[in-house]
Amino acid sequence: MDSRFAGWRKPLAHAVLMGMAGVICLVMLDEIDERYGLNWLFALRGVATAPADVVVIAIDQASASRLGYPVHVSKWPRAAHADLIGRLAAAGAGVIMVDLVFSVCRNDADDQKLADAIKKANNVVLVEGFFPGNLLGGESQVDSDFSDHAIVSRYVRQKICPVFVDASTAQSPFILPSTTDGRVTHYWHFATLADNAVSPLVETQPIPMLPALAMQVFAMPLHAEFVRVVQRVHPSLANELSVAPRDVEEMMLLLRKAFISQPHLQRQLRQGLAEDTALDLRQKQIIRGLIDLYASDGKRYLNFYGPPRSVRTISYHQILEGDQNQALLDLQGKAVFIGVSAQSQSEQDFVKAGDDYVSPFSGTDGAKISGVEIAATVFANLLDDRTLVPLSPWVSSGFMFILGFVISLIFFRISSVMMLTIGVFLLSCYWIFTYYHFAQFHIWLPLIAPTVWIFSSMLITVLMKSHGKIRQFLAVFRETLPEKFESDVRNSHAPIEVIHETTNGICMFTDIWRYSAIAEKMDPHDLRRLMARYFAVLKEQIILHDGEVISTQGDEVHAVWRIRPANIHQQKTRACLACLDIARAIERFHRADNTSPLLQTRIGLHCGEMSLRLIQASRSHAISATGDTVNTAKRIENANKILGTQLLMSASVTHGLKNFLLRSLGEFILPGMSRKVLLMELVAHKPHAEDKQRWLCETFELGLMAYQARQSDIAMQYFLDILHVYPDDGPARFYLARCNEASLTQASVIHLHDVPVTKITGTLTENT
Question: What ranges do the domains of the chain cover?
Fold first, then answer.
């Protein structure tokens, strides 16, 4: 017995360690799971049907054009808002939530008309503006020992004009915890707005957020029925609720306090509601949403229905057109949310509301979801009982420990082939299980951490069962591996893995103008430190935009973007954004240290098929790329010298891109090549392009067309016009020199190896 147990001691110890490591993996990957795992689950589930009782009235570009109003909604006549609210109230809307901040009092007839319409509707909820604050104690909430809701510091309230406050049913802000990239995944029903001087550990009075307030107003017609349901479970609370409170917010805080102090109240009320025979299904649906509202913890996750406008959306102008239009016929008893909501990314850029967020359904077109649609989604989740429910931290941790423990015991006793088969099978079952609970029951199980951990368990088990199998490969690759990689391989017992892949991709080369002259004048130690900081700046931007740095040598950086058919447009966009961000990052680099020599970076990009070789061992890997695409990219980068440019790429990269300002420089046969390449200069990202840059591209295009048509005098005039504004513009100087060279024929395709470098780039250094 003892001998048999002794044989299990090592596997059991290994299993316990793997279980503990699984818990650590869960904690480390929590944010990644929220960002990517949740997105994958939404993508797998697809679009869901939003409840018909929630409607968004969109203030959009179409309405501005149709009604003849300015693009900025703050300049719209408030009489139009009054007319809209009056029509919605007459149509029988159950609650009207206005996501427009009426902080400026105009004190005119329009203000009075709007106030009268709000008061007459008697169910209008207004949003309060605010200046952004900081979250205390984490991303969304503080220690639960002190508070059950989020605390927001440095909050500056933007008061609503008193005439509208007096007329409305309630007012509240809608604060969303978004990330730096505008992504939003969760929200709060209640939050405390704390002054800087107030400690987050001191209990302060929470206020309901806008969707919660709208839910309570929407449920007010069922107040008597709600009190009757509460009476069965909590008579004293029912007695307090039966006395009409002074305002909606006071009643909400009373209910919130009761639910927090009695955690079992939600389960008891839902059970009593299910047994009530006097209520119909819709009434039960509304009261159930009310119960869930007050029982919710501080952090709630959004269950998006789909891309922007998945919640039923009606344009503002459609409500105002005609007295008996179709849009008004079915708003009886519905929750209506009014706010700015664009239909596409281009319209969002045009409207510039600043209240748009990245959602899992933003997609390749970049369209974001508006703040008013998020408010409607929060409301719809409550009403439809579809709020996402993640596993509690304790349950998730226990699950990961058991997963790591059991898988480790299984893997330790089977062969590598069987381990791979079982691992893939378990992972497939878990993904199906996770998707089913997400789609059917709105329960969010961790996806990334278990996936990573199952593969990690297999890898770790293989490493523990395999020793000393790598040195046989070391001699083969010794000459091609980086020094650090070779050192890691020597000190590791892990096997070397070599992967060959032929793929489409984008290849980038960069170098520094006149690097040899800079290196000649600097102390080697200072040069090494300068280049280390320079390479760090370039690598950061490349990796940030999903690129892979292959090598850094001398003054040169070589990187690639791998392309799959599904992400070709995204990868091209990322590569171009990386070029522009590198240029900006180098400018910041020099502003931060103006004592260092100027490192003028030139970039070349080309897109096509390439062969990649990935060598992995231990914690390191080495990657290399070969092929005509790599060769062409290097020659395009060198062409910057002749054309006097900095961001040069082939048309294979820019094909299909619409969001960048590009300058076509014509077709060239690069040195050492026989086929022609259409070269493009990346000028700017269109949303940030200046008028002068657009003029430059348009004028150059006219000059190039005249040059190619052999109209030298006309072409020269265009190029001279450019040089008058941009005296050191390299392409204009290049073609002006071609026009002036009587011995040169103005061919449509130019052999760059025939052009002396010094002739064109004589003033480039002075300019840059």
Answer: 2-43+393-465, 49-384, 483-685, 690-768
Calculate the alpha carbon distances from 303 to 186, 189, 388 in Å: 9, 15, 6
DSSP helix/strand/coil, 93: coil
Q: Which residues are paired to 98 by β-bridges?
A: 126, 338
* Predicted confidence (pLDDT) per residue in 286-305, tens digit: 999 999 999 876 788 899 99
Give Cβ neighbours of residue 372 (< 8 Å, ≥ 6 apart).
56, 58, 99, 337, 338, 339, 340, 341, 355
Report the alpha-carbon distance of residue 457 to residue 461 in Å, rounded.
6
On the 0-12 / 13-18 / 19+ scale of CB atoms within 10 A, 616 is: middle
| Cα 361 from Cα 39, distance rounded (Å) | 8
Average pLDDT for residues 414-442, to the nearest whole number? 87
Neighbouring C-alpha atoms within 13 Å toward the C-beta of 551 = 17
DSSP letters for 112-168: HHHHHHHHHHS-EEEEPEEE--EESSSSS---TTT-SSEEEES-EEEPPPHHHHHHS
- Bridge partners, 190 (sequence order): 208
Residue 421 pLDDT level (bands cut at 50, 70, 90):
confident
Higher pLDDT, 495 or 445: 445
Q: Is pLDDT of 24 > 80? A: yes
Burial class (CB in 10 A: 0-12, 13-18, 19+), 502: exposed
Quote the CA–CA distance of 494 and 589 in Å, as a whole number.
40
pLDDT at 35: 83
- Distance in angstroms (rounded) separating the CA atoms of residues 662 and 660: 6
Q: How many CB atoms lie within 10 A of CB 25?
A: 22
End-to-end Cα spacing for the chain: 80
Alpha helices by DSSP H, 364-470: 371-384, 393-412, 416-441, 448-465
Among 452-466, 670-684, 689-703, the minimum mean pLDDT is found in: 452-466
Q: Which of 630, 585, 641, 577 is nearest to 608 (CA)?
A: 630
Angle between helix 730-740 and 628-643 (nearest 10): 80
- Average pLDDT across the chain, whole number: 81
**Strands, E assignment, 435-555:** 443-444, 497-512, 548-553
**Whole-number pLDDT of residue 151:** 67
d(CA 356, CA 354): 6
Q: Is-contact 682 579, C-beta < 8 A?
A: yes
3-state secondary structure 642-655: HHCCCEEEEHHHHC
Which tokens hold the place of 355?
Answer: 């209240």
Half-sphere exposure of 261 (CA within 13 A, CB side): 8
State residue 300's pLDDT score: 87
Does 19 have pLDDT greater than 60? yes
**Number of helices (H) and strands (E), helices first, in the chain?**
32, 27
Structure tokens at 161: 């004009």
Measured CA to CA, the distance from residue 661 to residue 429 in angstroms comes to 48
Taking only the tens place, the pLDDT of each residue in 340-386 is 988 776 666 555 556 788 888 876 566 788 899 999 999 999 999 88
Residue whose structure tokens are 């998730």: 396
Can you point out the beta strands (E) in 641-701? 647-650, 660-669, 676-685
* Confidence at residue 758, expressed as pLDDT on a 0 to 100 scale: 37
- Sign of the CA dihedral running 735, 737, 740, 743: negative
Which CATH architecture best describes the domain 483-685? Answer: 2-Layer Sandwich (3.30)
pLDDT in tens, 551-587: 888 889 999 998 887 788 889 999 999 999 998 988 8
Tokens linked to 297: 């913890």
Structure confidence at residue 8 (pLDDT): 65
